[in-house]
Amino acid sequence: MSEEKKKTSRKKAAEKETAPKKVVKKKVVAEAVPSMPAVPAAPVGKKKVKKPFAPAIAKYYGTGRRKSAIAQVFIFEGSGKALLNSKPAEDYFCNRPRLLKEFNKPLILTNNSGKYDIAAHLKGGGVSAQADALRMAVSRALVVADPNLRKVLRTNDMLKRDPREKERKKYGLKRARRAFQYSKR
To answer: Which one is the CATH code of 60-155: 3.30.930.10, 1.20.1740.10, 3.90.180.10, 3.30.230.10?
Structure first.
């Protein structure tokens, strides 16, 4: 008899596991909210920040990276202006001609130097790495704008990411590979 009870209890347990569980949904009743005073439309005393470019024309986006620098770029048809972190390119790169030439390379190669305006957000790394990241981002944005330019940019290595990064410091050494001076005597 005791074995029979065990079998029936096992069957009941198995039925409970396989039976679908009932889900009870609670009804939410909306309560009346006491009337609140009107909230002002804009915060008082704060200036509205002017955006550098707010055109209604097509924007093309590109991202570029180099070392620890990241460049996020929007290009759109315009007169050839470049704003980097809300500053003109000449001010941002301190009139360093090599850096100014570096990020304009893709535009010059594709004969689009005066056709597109550039709005970029740069972060991380140094200015040289940021210029390289910006070059890659502008190249990618140009490919989005016109896929026919891909071949020209690719043959000139404008779409290739430079994989070189800083090597980590090892324990027991001064830097990644520089050891402490050894003296035999």
So the answer is: 3.30.230.10
